[in-house]
Design goal:
The chain has about 290 residues and is mainly α. The chain has 12 helices and no strands.
C-alpha cells in the first residue's frame, strides 16, 4: 500500500461519508479493485478519524452547545434528587425543575436515545457484518437496498418537525435503524435521513441530526476496530501512509460537507438513489470479474 492509494481512499472517504451512500462499501470496493494487500483495519480507523475531525469542525457550535447542555442537564438531575430528598424529609410534595427545556436539550436526549440502540443492534449483527465485510458483492447488494430506501423517502414530502416535536421513542427507532448500517453497503447517513423524513423531520434537521449521530457512531466503530489492529502494522511507513489518507479525507470532507448538505436540502435524494443503484450494480458485476 503506497501514499497514492491511501490518498485516493481518503478522497473517497471524505466525499462519501457525507453522502447518503455507503462510504465503507465504496472503500471496500476500491481496496478490492486496487488489489490492496494486507490488513486495512488501521487505515479504516485513520480515514474515519479524518472525517470525524471534519464533522467536529463543521458542527463545532452545535457540538459545543450540546456538551454544555448535557452538563447542565446532569446538574439539574442532581438538583432534582436533592429536592426529592428534602421534600421526603419534610413530608412535602417535591417541586422538580424541568430538565428538557430547549431544542438543544431535546437533541441531547435524542442523540443518547439513538446511540444506545445503535450500539446494541451493531453488536447483535456483528457476525452478519463480519460476513458482509469479507465479500464485495454484499456491498453492492447493500447499495441497492439503500437506493430503494432513498427513492421511497424522496417520494415523501418532508415535514416541519423541530427537536421539541420529536419523542424519545422516535429517537430509539432511529437508533435501531441506524444500527443496521453495520452491514457493508448500507449507508448510515442514508438510513438516518430516510427514517427522519418518514417521521416528519424537516430536511435541515434530518441532515443535521444524521451528522450529530455520526460522531458517536464513528467513535464507536474506531474503538471496536482498534483491538483488531496487529501491532506489527503500526510501523512508521504504514502509519505515514494512513496519516496521508486521514489528512486527505479531512480536507476533502471539509470542502464538501456544506455543499453536500445544501444539495440534499434543495434537490432531494433521488439522484443519490440513482447513484446507489448504478454503483450497486457495478460493484456486483465487478465482484464476479475480479
Amino acid at each position: 500500500m503506497d501514499y497514492l492509494q491511501t490518498i485516493l481512499l481518503g478522497i473517497i472517504q471524505g466525499l462519501t461519508e457525507f453522502l447518503p451512500i455507503s462510504s465503507y462499501g465504496l472503500l471496500q470496493f476500491a481496496e478490492h479493485t486496487l488489489r490492496i494487500q494486507g490488513s486495512t483495519e488501521f487505515l479504516n480507523i485513520a480515514l474515519h478519524a479524518g472525517t470525524l475531525i471534519t464533522i467536529l469542525l463543521a458542527m463545532q457550535k452545535d457540538v459545543a452547545r450540546l456538551c454544555r447542555e448535557a452538563v447542565r442537564m446532569i446538574r439539574d438531575i442532581f438538583f432534582n434528587i436533592r429536592i426529592m430528598i428534602r421534600a421526603a424529609k419534610a413530608h412535602e410534595e417535591p417541586r422538580f425543575i424541568h430538565i428538557v427545556t430547549s431544542n438543544y436539550r431535546q437533541l441531547v436526549v435524542l442523540v443518547l436515545c439513538a446511540t444506545i440502540p445503535t450500539g446494541a443492534v451493531g453488536f447483535l449483527l456483528r457476525r452478519v457484518a463480519s460476513v458482509s465485510y469479507g465479500q464485495v458483492m454484499y456491498s453492492g447488494i447493500g447499495m441497492l437496498l439503500t437506493g430503494v430506501l432513498l427513492l421511497v423517502a424522496d417520494m415523501v414530502q418532508a415535514g416541519n418537525k423541530i427537536p421539541k416535536d420529536i419523542t424519545w421513542k422516535q429517537g430509539i427507532l432511529i437508533g435501531i435503524i441506524q444500527g443496521i448500517s453495520v452491514i457493508s453497503g448500507i449507508s448510515r447517513m442514508g438510513l438516518v435521513l430516510v427514517c427522519g423524513i418518514l417521521l416528519g423531520f424537516n430536511k435541515k434537521l434530518a441532515i443535521r441530526f444524521s451528522y450529530l449521530l455520526s460522531i458517536p457512531a464513528i467513535l464507536g466503530a474506531m474503538i471496536t476496530q482498534v483491538s483488531k489492529v496487529p501491532v506489527i502494522l503500526t510501523t512508521p511507513r504504514y502509519a505515514g501512509t494512513c496519516l496521508a489518507g486521514a489528512v486527505s479525507a479531512a480536507l476533502v470532507g471539509f470542502l464538501s460537507i456544506r455543499a453536500i448538505s445544501k444539495f440534499v436540502r434543495q434537490r432531494g435524494l433521488r439522484l443519490f438513489a440513482i447513484w446507489s443503484f448504478v454503483l450497486g450494480i457495478a460493484i456486483i458485476a465487478v465482484s464476479y470479474v475480479l
